Amino acid sequence: MNIHEYQAKAVLKSFGAPVAEGVPVLSLDDVQKAVDTLPGPLWVVKSQIHAGGRGKGKFVEAEAGEKGGVRLAFTKEDVLANAKQMLGHHLVTAQTGPAGKQVNRLYIEDGADIDRELYLSILVDRESGKVAFVVSTEGGMDIEAVAHDTPEKIMTLPVDGGVTEDDASKLCDALKLEGTARTDGMKLFPILYKAFTEKDMAMLEVNPLIVMENGHLRVLDAKVSFDGNALFRHPDIVELRDKTEEDEKEIEASEWDLAYIALDGTIGCMVNGAGLAMATMDIIKLYGEEPANFCDVGGGAGKEKVAAAFKIIMKDPNVKGILVNIFGGIMKCDVIAEGVIAAVKETNLAVPLVVRLEGTNVELGKKIIADSGLNVISADDLDDAAQKIVNAVRG
Ligand code: ADP
Ligand code: MG
Protein backbone atom coordinates (compact mmCIF):
# COMPACT_ATOMS: atom_id res chain seq x y z
CA MET A 1 0.00 0.00 0.00
CA ASN A 2 1.27 3.47 -0.93
CA ILE A 3 0.69 6.75 0.88
CA HIS A 4 1.17 10.41 0.03
CA GLU A 5 4.35 12.37 0.69
CA TYR A 6 2.77 14.48 3.45
CA GLN A 7 1.54 11.34 5.22
CA ALA A 8 4.94 9.67 4.92
CA LYS A 9 6.57 12.76 6.40
CA ALA A 10 4.14 12.73 9.33
CA VAL A 11 5.03 9.07 10.00
CA LEU A 12 8.76 9.80 9.84
CA LYS A 13 8.36 12.89 12.03
CA SER A 14 6.65 10.76 14.69
CA PHE A 15 9.88 8.76 14.89
CA GLY A 16 11.93 11.95 15.22
CA ALA A 17 13.14 12.53 11.65
CA PRO A 18 13.67 16.17 10.62
CA VAL A 19 11.01 17.33 8.16
CA ALA A 20 9.83 20.79 7.16
CA GLU A 21 6.66 22.37 8.51
CA GLY A 22 3.83 21.84 6.08
CA VAL A 23 0.05 21.73 5.73
CA PRO A 24 -1.93 19.39 3.45
CA VAL A 25 -4.89 20.99 1.67
CA LEU A 26 -7.78 19.37 -0.13
CA SER A 27 -9.55 22.49 -1.35
CA LEU A 28 -8.67 26.01 -2.46
CA ASP A 29 -10.57 27.42 0.51
CA ASP A 30 -7.93 26.00 2.85
CA VAL A 31 -4.87 27.41 1.07
CA GLN A 32 -4.89 30.86 2.70
CA LYS A 33 -5.06 29.40 6.20
CA ALA A 34 -2.27 26.94 5.39
CA VAL A 35 0.04 29.57 4.03
CA ASP A 36 -0.53 31.85 7.03
CA THR A 37 0.70 29.17 9.44
CA LEU A 38 4.06 28.95 7.63
CA PRO A 39 6.79 31.55 8.13
CA GLY A 40 7.95 32.18 4.53
CA PRO A 41 9.69 33.85 2.74
CA LEU A 42 9.69 30.75 0.56
CA TRP A 43 6.79 28.33 0.21
CA VAL A 44 6.64 25.17 -1.86
CA VAL A 45 3.39 23.95 -3.39
CA LYS A 46 3.58 20.19 -3.92
CA SER A 47 1.11 18.00 -5.82
CA GLN A 48 0.18 14.93 -3.80
CA ILE A 49 -0.24 11.95 -6.10
CA HIS A 50 1.00 8.38 -5.75
CA ALA A 51 3.75 8.81 -8.33
CA GLY A 52 7.27 10.16 -8.37
CA GLY A 53 8.89 12.61 -10.74
CA ARG A 54 6.41 15.37 -9.91
CA GLY A 55 8.95 18.17 -10.13
CA LYS A 56 9.71 17.32 -13.74
CA GLY A 57 6.08 16.50 -14.55
CA LYS A 58 3.75 18.42 -16.90
CA PHE A 59 0.08 19.19 -16.47
CA VAL A 60 -2.32 18.10 -19.20
CA GLU A 61 -4.56 21.17 -18.96
CA ALA A 62 -3.25 24.45 -20.40
CA GLU A 63 -4.71 26.49 -17.50
CA ALA A 64 -2.38 24.64 -15.12
CA GLY A 65 0.54 26.51 -16.65
CA GLU A 66 3.91 25.37 -17.89
CA LYS A 67 5.54 24.58 -14.55
CA GLY A 68 5.69 21.08 -13.03
CA GLY A 69 4.02 19.50 -10.00
CA VAL A 70 6.37 21.00 -7.37
CA ARG A 71 6.49 24.80 -7.41
CA LEU A 72 8.35 27.40 -5.43
CA ALA A 73 6.41 30.52 -4.41
CA PHE A 74 7.92 33.72 -3.02
CA THR A 75 4.70 35.46 -2.00
CA LYS A 76 1.45 34.28 -0.44
CA GLU A 77 -0.43 35.41 -3.56
CA ASP A 78 1.87 33.26 -5.63
CA VAL A 79 1.08 30.23 -3.44
CA LEU A 80 -2.61 30.77 -4.03
CA ALA A 81 -2.18 31.29 -7.77
CA ASN A 82 -0.16 28.08 -8.12
CA ALA A 83 -2.57 26.10 -5.95
CA LYS A 84 -5.42 27.27 -8.19
CA GLN A 85 -3.55 26.14 -11.29
CA MET A 86 -2.68 22.72 -9.89
CA LEU A 87 -5.71 21.47 -7.93
CA GLY A 88 -8.08 19.31 -9.94
CA HIS A 89 -5.75 19.08 -12.92
CA HIS A 90 -3.90 16.07 -14.31
CA LEU A 91 -0.20 15.74 -13.78
CA VAL A 92 1.82 13.51 -16.11
CA THR A 93 5.15 12.23 -14.78
CA ALA A 94 7.53 9.46 -15.85
CA GLN A 95 5.57 7.19 -13.50
CA THR A 96 1.91 8.02 -14.23
CA GLY A 97 1.36 6.89 -17.80
CA PRO A 98 0.21 9.31 -20.52
CA ALA A 99 -3.20 10.11 -18.99
CA GLY A 100 -1.57 11.43 -15.80
CA LYS A 101 -3.11 11.55 -12.35
CA GLN A 102 -5.59 14.08 -11.07
CA VAL A 103 -4.18 16.24 -8.28
CA ASN A 104 -6.76 16.22 -5.49
CA ARG A 105 -4.46 17.21 -2.64
CA LEU A 106 -1.64 19.68 -2.26
CA TYR A 107 1.02 19.98 0.37
CA ILE A 108 2.10 23.53 1.17
CA GLU A 109 5.52 23.34 2.71
CA ASP A 110 8.11 25.64 4.19
CA GLY A 111 10.87 26.23 1.65
CA ALA A 112 14.38 25.06 2.49
CA ASP A 113 17.75 26.61 1.59
CA ILE A 114 19.41 23.69 -0.11
CA ASP A 115 23.16 23.18 -0.16
CA ARG A 116 23.26 19.57 -1.42
CA GLU A 117 20.63 17.03 -2.51
CA LEU A 118 21.36 13.41 -1.53
CA TYR A 119 19.61 10.12 -2.15
CA LEU A 120 18.65 7.57 0.50
CA SER A 121 16.35 4.59 0.46
CA ILE A 122 15.72 1.54 2.61
CA LEU A 123 14.43 -1.72 1.21
CA VAL A 124 14.55 -5.46 1.72
CA ASP A 125 17.57 -6.61 -0.24
CA ARG A 126 16.97 -10.04 -1.74
CA GLU A 127 20.62 -10.63 -2.43
CA SER A 128 21.74 -10.34 1.18
CA GLY A 129 18.39 -11.29 2.70
CA LYS A 130 18.65 -8.19 4.88
CA VAL A 131 17.29 -4.70 5.16
CA ALA A 132 19.60 -2.48 3.16
CA PHE A 133 20.28 1.22 2.83
CA VAL A 134 20.90 2.53 -0.68
CA VAL A 135 22.59 5.93 -0.75
CA SER A 136 24.15 8.34 -3.21
CA THR A 137 25.55 11.85 -3.15
CA GLU A 138 23.78 12.43 -6.48
CA GLY A 139 20.23 12.86 -5.12
CA GLY A 140 17.41 14.96 -6.51
CA MET A 141 15.39 14.57 -9.65
CA ASP A 142 17.80 12.51 -11.77
CA ILE A 143 18.53 9.43 -9.66
CA GLU A 144 17.26 7.11 -12.42
CA ALA A 145 19.87 8.54 -14.77
CA VAL A 146 22.58 8.14 -12.10
CA ALA A 147 21.63 4.49 -11.62
CA HIS A 148 21.81 3.97 -15.38
CA ASP A 149 24.92 5.95 -16.32
CA THR A 150 27.09 5.95 -13.18
CA PRO A 151 25.98 3.06 -10.93
CA GLU A 152 29.29 3.29 -9.02
CA LYS A 153 27.93 6.48 -7.44
CA ILE A 154 25.28 4.45 -5.60
CA MET A 155 26.20 2.43 -2.50
CA THR A 156 24.17 -0.41 -0.99
CA LEU A 157 24.74 -1.24 2.68
CA PRO A 158 22.89 -4.23 4.16
CA VAL A 159 22.43 -3.97 7.94
CA ASP A 160 21.98 -6.78 10.42
CA GLY A 161 19.01 -6.26 12.75
CA GLY A 162 19.81 -2.59 13.41
CA VAL A 163 22.04 0.31 12.43
CA THR A 164 25.33 0.14 14.35
CA GLU A 165 27.63 3.13 14.87
CA ASP A 166 29.86 1.60 12.27
CA ASP A 167 26.98 1.34 9.75
CA ALA A 168 25.92 4.95 10.39
CA SER A 169 29.49 6.05 9.97
CA LYS A 170 29.81 4.24 6.63
CA LEU A 171 26.62 5.92 5.42
CA CYS A 172 27.95 9.34 6.49
CA ASP A 173 31.18 8.65 4.59
CA ALA A 174 29.32 7.56 1.46
CA LEU A 175 27.23 10.75 1.61
CA LYS A 176 30.26 12.90 2.43
CA LEU A 177 28.63 14.27 5.57
CA GLU A 178 30.76 16.39 7.85
CA GLY A 179 30.29 18.53 10.97
CA THR A 180 26.65 19.25 11.83
CA ALA A 181 25.41 17.17 8.91
CA ARG A 182 27.40 14.17 10.16
CA THR A 183 26.02 14.52 13.68
CA ASP A 184 22.50 14.68 12.20
CA GLY A 185 23.19 11.65 10.00
CA MET A 186 24.40 9.50 12.90
CA LYS A 187 21.02 10.16 14.57
CA LEU A 188 18.86 10.02 11.45
CA PHE A 189 19.86 6.62 10.00
CA PRO A 190 18.80 4.58 13.06
CA ILE A 191 15.53 6.59 13.20
CA LEU A 192 14.71 5.75 9.58
CA TYR A 193 15.57 2.09 10.16
CA LYS A 194 13.28 1.99 13.18
CA ALA A 195 10.41 3.56 11.22
CA PHE A 196 10.99 1.10 8.37
CA THR A 197 10.93 -2.03 10.54
CA GLU A 198 8.32 -1.00 13.12
CA LYS A 199 5.82 0.05 10.47
CA ASP A 200 6.56 -2.93 8.19
CA MET A 201 7.50 -0.77 5.23
CA ALA A 202 8.35 -2.41 1.94
CA MET A 203 10.24 0.64 0.75
CA LEU A 204 11.22 4.01 2.14
CA GLU A 205 12.73 6.50 -0.27
CA VAL A 206 14.01 9.94 0.70
CA ASN A 207 14.95 11.76 -2.49
CA PRO A 208 16.25 14.24 -1.83
CA LEU A 209 17.64 14.09 1.65
CA ILE A 210 19.16 17.56 1.85
CA VAL A 211 22.04 19.25 3.56
CA MET A 212 20.76 22.75 4.26
CA GLU A 213 22.85 25.87 4.16
CA ASN A 214 22.87 25.88 7.97
CA GLY A 215 24.49 22.43 7.84
CA HIS A 216 21.51 20.41 9.09
CA LEU A 217 19.91 17.45 7.31
CA ARG A 218 16.26 17.43 6.29
CA VAL A 219 13.94 14.88 4.70
CA LEU A 220 12.71 16.91 1.71
CA ASP A 221 10.72 14.24 -0.13
CA ALA A 222 9.45 10.92 1.19
CA LYS A 223 7.94 8.00 -0.60
CA VAL A 224 6.80 5.04 1.45
CA SER A 225 5.06 1.78 0.63
CA PHE A 226 3.94 -0.79 3.17
CA ASP A 227 3.94 -4.56 3.04
CA GLY A 228 0.30 -5.46 2.38
CA ASN A 229 0.65 -8.72 4.31
CA ALA A 230 1.47 -6.84 7.52
CA LEU A 231 -1.21 -4.14 7.30
CA PHE A 232 -3.40 -5.97 9.81
CA ARG A 233 -0.86 -4.93 12.44
CA HIS A 234 -1.13 -1.24 11.55
CA PRO A 235 -4.68 0.14 11.67
CA ASP A 236 -3.17 3.67 11.84
CA ILE A 237 -1.48 3.10 8.47
CA VAL A 238 -4.59 1.56 6.87
CA GLU A 239 -6.37 4.83 7.79
CA LEU A 240 -4.01 6.65 5.42
CA ARG A 241 -5.15 4.73 2.36
CA ASP A 242 -6.39 7.04 -0.41
CA LYS A 243 -8.59 4.91 -2.61
CA THR A 244 -8.92 7.65 -5.23
CA GLU A 245 -5.28 6.92 -6.11
CA GLU A 246 -5.98 3.26 -6.77
CA ASP A 247 -7.55 1.48 -9.71
CA GLU A 248 -11.19 0.71 -8.87
CA LYS A 249 -10.80 -2.81 -10.25
CA GLU A 250 -7.75 -3.42 -8.08
CA ILE A 251 -9.65 -2.34 -4.96
CA GLU A 252 -12.49 -4.73 -5.75
CA ALA A 253 -10.00 -7.51 -6.46
CA SER A 254 -8.29 -6.95 -3.10
CA GLU A 255 -11.67 -7.38 -1.41
CA TRP A 256 -11.89 -10.85 -3.02
CA ASP A 257 -8.26 -11.55 -2.15
CA LEU A 258 -7.38 -11.73 -5.84
CA ALA A 259 -3.98 -10.63 -7.09
CA TYR A 260 -5.06 -8.32 -9.94
CA ILE A 261 -3.04 -5.61 -11.65
CA ALA A 262 -4.62 -3.54 -14.42
CA LEU A 263 -2.49 -3.21 -17.58
CA ASP A 264 -3.15 -1.52 -20.90
CA GLY A 265 -3.52 -4.39 -23.40
CA THR A 266 -6.63 -6.04 -24.84
CA ILE A 267 -6.55 -9.64 -23.63
CA GLY A 268 -7.96 -10.28 -20.18
CA CYS A 269 -6.23 -13.10 -18.32
CA MET A 270 -7.44 -15.31 -15.50
CA VAL A 271 -4.81 -17.69 -14.23
CA ASN A 272 -3.87 -19.49 -11.03
CA GLY A 273 -0.38 -19.03 -9.69
CA ALA A 274 1.80 -15.97 -10.29
CA GLY A 275 4.36 -17.91 -12.35
CA LEU A 276 1.76 -19.32 -14.69
CA ALA A 277 0.17 -15.87 -14.92
CA MET A 278 3.50 -14.38 -15.99
CA ALA A 279 4.05 -17.14 -18.54
CA THR A 280 0.55 -16.56 -19.91
CA MET A 281 1.22 -12.86 -20.32
CA ASP A 282 4.53 -13.59 -22.04
CA ILE A 283 3.00 -15.93 -24.57
CA ILE A 284 0.23 -13.47 -25.39
CA LYS A 285 2.96 -10.95 -26.21
CA LEU A 286 4.86 -13.59 -28.19
CA TYR A 287 1.83 -13.93 -30.47
CA GLY A 288 1.64 -10.16 -30.92
CA GLU A 289 -1.04 -8.96 -28.50
CA GLU A 290 -0.84 -7.36 -25.06
CA PRO A 291 -2.39 -8.54 -21.78
CA ALA A 292 -5.08 -6.30 -20.24
CA ASN A 293 -4.22 -7.43 -16.75
CA PHE A 294 -2.29 -9.72 -14.48
CA CYS A 295 -4.69 -11.90 -12.49
CA ASP A 296 -3.79 -14.70 -10.13
CA VAL A 297 -6.92 -16.23 -8.59
CA GLY A 298 -4.81 -18.31 -6.21
CA GLY A 299 -4.68 -22.00 -5.56
CA GLY A 300 -7.90 -22.55 -3.64
CA ALA A 301 -10.43 -20.37 -5.48
CA GLY A 302 -14.03 -21.56 -5.50
CA LYS A 303 -16.83 -20.91 -7.97
CA GLU A 304 -17.74 -17.48 -6.51
CA LYS A 305 -14.19 -16.21 -6.59
CA VAL A 306 -13.72 -17.31 -10.20
CA ALA A 307 -16.95 -15.50 -11.11
CA ALA A 308 -15.81 -12.36 -9.25
CA ALA A 309 -12.47 -12.37 -11.06
CA PHE A 310 -14.28 -12.70 -14.36
CA LYS A 311 -16.49 -9.72 -13.65
CA ILE A 312 -13.54 -7.55 -12.62
CA ILE A 313 -11.67 -8.44 -15.81
CA MET A 314 -14.76 -7.56 -17.86
CA LYS A 315 -15.03 -4.10 -16.25
CA ASP A 316 -12.02 -3.02 -18.28
CA PRO A 317 -13.44 -1.48 -21.49
CA ASN A 318 -10.25 -2.34 -23.41
CA VAL A 319 -10.76 -6.10 -23.01
CA LYS A 320 -11.47 -7.65 -26.42
CA GLY A 321 -11.08 -11.28 -25.39
CA ILE A 322 -10.37 -13.42 -22.31
CA LEU A 323 -7.94 -16.24 -21.81
CA VAL A 324 -8.52 -18.52 -18.83
CA ASN A 325 -5.51 -20.69 -18.08
CA ILE A 326 -5.86 -22.87 -15.01
CA PHE A 327 -3.81 -25.70 -13.68
CA GLY A 328 -6.05 -27.76 -11.42
CA GLY A 329 -4.03 -29.04 -8.47
CA ILE A 330 -5.81 -28.28 -5.23
CA MET A 331 -8.29 -26.51 -7.46
CA LYS A 332 -10.36 -28.91 -9.55
CA CYS A 333 -10.99 -28.29 -13.23
CA ASP A 334 -14.70 -29.08 -12.96
CA VAL A 335 -15.12 -26.41 -10.26
CA ILE A 336 -13.32 -23.89 -12.46
CA ALA A 337 -15.48 -24.82 -15.43
CA GLU A 338 -18.64 -24.28 -13.39
CA GLY A 339 -17.39 -20.91 -12.15
CA VAL A 340 -16.49 -19.79 -15.66
CA ILE A 341 -19.86 -20.82 -17.04
CA ALA A 342 -21.76 -19.12 -14.23
CA ALA A 343 -19.78 -15.92 -14.82
CA VAL A 344 -20.25 -16.05 -18.61
CA LYS A 345 -24.01 -16.35 -18.15
CA GLU A 346 -24.16 -13.63 -15.52
CA THR A 347 -22.10 -11.09 -17.45
CA ASN A 348 -23.62 -11.82 -20.87
CA LEU A 349 -20.09 -12.13 -22.14
CA ALA A 350 -19.81 -10.49 -25.56
CA VAL A 351 -16.11 -11.10 -26.28
CA PRO A 352 -14.37 -14.35 -27.28
CA LEU A 353 -13.29 -16.62 -24.44
CA VAL A 354 -10.60 -19.29 -24.63
CA VAL A 355 -10.31 -21.75 -21.76
CA ARG A 356 -7.32 -23.98 -21.20
CA LEU A 357 -7.60 -26.42 -18.31
CA GLU A 358 -5.08 -28.96 -17.14
CA GLY A 359 -4.80 -31.17 -14.08
CA THR A 360 -7.29 -32.71 -11.66
CA ASN A 361 -10.65 -33.60 -13.25
CA VAL A 362 -9.64 -32.05 -16.55
CA GLU A 363 -11.87 -34.33 -18.65
CA LEU A 364 -14.89 -33.53 -16.53
CA GLY A 365 -14.08 -29.81 -16.73
CA LYS A 366 -13.87 -29.89 -20.51
CA LYS A 367 -17.11 -31.84 -20.73
CA ILE A 368 -18.93 -29.27 -18.57
CA ILE A 369 -17.75 -26.51 -20.91
CA ALA A 370 -18.62 -28.46 -24.06
CA ASP A 371 -22.09 -29.33 -22.74
CA SER A 372 -22.86 -25.77 -21.62
CA GLY A 373 -23.88 -24.71 -25.12
CA LEU A 374 -21.99 -21.45 -24.61
CA ASN A 375 -19.55 -20.06 -27.12
CA VAL A 376 -16.37 -21.01 -25.30
CA ILE A 377 -13.26 -22.02 -27.23
CA SER A 378 -11.43 -24.90 -25.60
CA ALA A 379 -7.64 -25.13 -25.87
CA ASP A 380 -5.24 -28.00 -25.20
CA ASP A 381 -2.01 -26.31 -24.19
CA LEU A 382 -0.62 -22.85 -23.54
CA ASP A 383 0.62 -22.36 -27.08
CA ASP A 384 -2.70 -23.41 -28.57
CA ALA A 385 -4.59 -21.20 -26.09
CA ALA A 386 -2.55 -18.09 -26.88
CA GLN A 387 -2.91 -18.54 -30.64
CA LYS A 388 -6.64 -19.11 -30.34
CA ILE A 389 -7.31 -15.99 -28.27
CA VAL A 390 -5.06 -13.81 -30.47
CA ASN A 391 -6.82 -15.07 -33.61
CA ALA A 392 -10.21 -14.57 -31.99
CA VAL A 393 -9.61 -10.92 -31.03
CA ARG A 394 -8.22 -10.17 -34.46
CA GLY A 395 -11.40 -11.61 -35.98
P1 ADP B 1 9.53 14.68 -6.99
O1 ADP B 1 10.61 13.74 -6.56
O2 ADP B 1 8.21 14.02 -7.13
O3 ADP B 1 9.92 15.47 -8.22
P2 ADP B 1 10.33 16.36 -4.71
O4 ADP B 1 9.59 16.51 -3.44
O5 ADP B 1 11.58 15.56 -4.65
O6 ADP B 1 9.33 15.78 -5.81
O7 ADP B 1 10.66 17.81 -5.25
C1 ADP B 1 11.42 18.05 -6.41
C2 ADP B 1 12.50 19.10 -6.13
O8 ADP B 1 11.89 20.29 -5.66
C3 ADP B 1 13.47 18.68 -5.05
O9 ADP B 1 14.53 17.92 -5.59
C4 ADP B 1 13.92 20.03 -4.52
O10 ADP B 1 14.95 20.55 -5.32
C5 ADP B 1 12.70 20.92 -4.68
N1 ADP B 1 11.94 21.00 -3.40
C6 ADP B 1 11.00 20.15 -2.94
N2 ADP B 1 10.54 20.51 -1.72
C7 ADP B 1 11.21 21.63 -1.39
C8 ADP B 1 11.22 22.49 -0.24
N3 ADP B 1 10.41 22.27 0.81
N4 ADP B 1 12.06 23.54 -0.25
C9 ADP B 1 12.89 23.80 -1.30
N5 ADP B 1 12.91 23.03 -2.41
C10 ADP B 1 12.11 21.95 -2.46
MG1 MG C 1 11.73 13.46 -5.00
Automatic annotation (TrEMBL):
Keywords, sorted A to Z:
ATP-binding, Ligase, Magnesium, Metal-binding, Nucleotide-binding, Tricarboxylic acid cycle
- Please tell me where substrate binds in this chain: 272, 329-331
List residues binding Mg(2+): 207, 221
Query: What is its quaternary makeup?
Result: Heterotetramer of two alpha and two beta subunits.
What InterPro entries does the annotation carry? ATP-grasp, ATP-grasp_succ-CoA_synth-type, ATP_grasp_subdomain_1, Succ-CoA_synthase_bsu_CS, SUCC_ACL_C, Succ_CoA_ligase-like_bsu, Succinyl-CoA_synth-like
Q: Which cofactor does it need?
A: Mg(2+)
Q: Mention one GO biological process in which this protein takes part, according to its record.
A: succinyl-CoA metabolic process
Reaction it catalyzes: succinate + ATP + CoA = succinyl-CoA + ADP + phosphate; (S)-malate + ATP + CoA = (S)-malyl-CoA + ADP + phosphate; GTP + succinate + CoA = succinyl-CoA + GDP + phosphate
Is the Oxidoreductase keyword given for this protein?
no
Its annotated pathway reads: One-carbon metabolism; formaldehyde assimilation via serine pathway; Carbohydrate metabolism; tricarboxylic acid cycle; succinate from succinyl-CoA (ligase route): step 1/1
Which PANTHER family does the entry link to? SUCCINATE--COA LIGASE [GDP-FORMING] SUBUNIT BETA, MITOCHONDRIAL, SUCCINYL-COA SYNTHETASE BETA CHAIN
Q: What family name appears in the similarity comment?
A: Belongs to the succinate/malate CoA ligase beta subunit family.
Q: Spell out the GO cellular component terms annotated for this protein, sorted alphabetically and separated by semicolons.
A: cytosol; succinate-CoA ligase complex
Recorded E.C. number(s)? Answer: 6.2.1.5
Please report the name of this protein according to its UniProt entry.
Succinate--CoA ligase [ADP-forming] subunit beta
* A GO term, aspect molecular function: succinate-CoA ligase (ADP-forming) activity
**All residue ranges annotated as the ATP-grasp domain in the record:** 9-239
Q: What class of enzyme is it?
A: ligase
Per the entry, what this protein does is: Succinyl-CoA synthetase functions in the citric acid cycle (TCA), coupling the hydrolysis of succinyl-CoA to the synthesis of either ATP or GTP and thus represents the only step of substrate-level phosphorylation in the TCA. The beta subunit provides nucleotide specificity of the enzyme and binds the substrate succinate, while the binding sites for coenzyme A and phosphate are found in the alpha subunit.
